[in-house]
Amino acid sequence: NAGVTQTPKFRILKIGQSMTLQCTQDMNHNYMYWYRQDPGMGLKLIYYSVGAGITDKGEVPNGYNVSRSTTEDFPLRLELAAPSQTSVYFCASRKSGLNQPQHFGDGTRLSIL
Amino acid sequence: GENVEQHPSTLSVQEGDSAVIKCTYSDSASNYFPWYKQELGKRPQLIIDIRSNVGEKKDQRIAVTLNKTAKHFSLHITETQPEDSAVYFCAASKEGFQKLVFGTGTRLLVSP
Predict the structure, then answer these.
(1) For B51-60, what is each residue's pLDDT tens digit?
(2) Which of A56, B26, B45, B76, by CA, is between 20 and 30 Å from B16?
(3) How far apart are CA B25 and CA A32, in angstroms?
């Protein structure tokens, strides 16, 4: 049981490039989340999903897109990378039901130069 | 929407002392309050959580208390150890609301 797995762990992008951050979980969790964490700051919600085929915006969705074609996978897409998107990105998942805790992946450290 | 405030932003204690981190929330309907610990360069990890039907929960050296009337909850760490040094985040959520709202974090430094 690997939990929440994120790839890659590190990536450097040039301004204007695109990339997809991968997130997969093997716990059969319906709920999945993407957060960004800027240096020394808290977690800001980018997008979330309550099940396959359903996604919704969080606090800071601009510049990102997501899809949820399967229960296991929740990729995050950056279309035109900007320096302001330099951050650590965390994916999380949780079970359905009341008051279930979120479980986080190890994060992807992304630098845009 | 829900707003969670967390204090202090940094906390320095000597090994063996107690540490207390406080959070206040704005939505009286919130009923789930987890605490996460994030070591440097690592993922946030759940250390304890409390639901609104209880006022206190303990797990070894860690305890969380909840005051629903005042809308605040606190993390208490007793007999602190250097390995407790990390950033701690509180969060709040409510029934039927799929998202957690996080506090801004407290950096705890435990000096030997």
Answers:
(1) 888 889 999 9
(2) B45
(3) 24
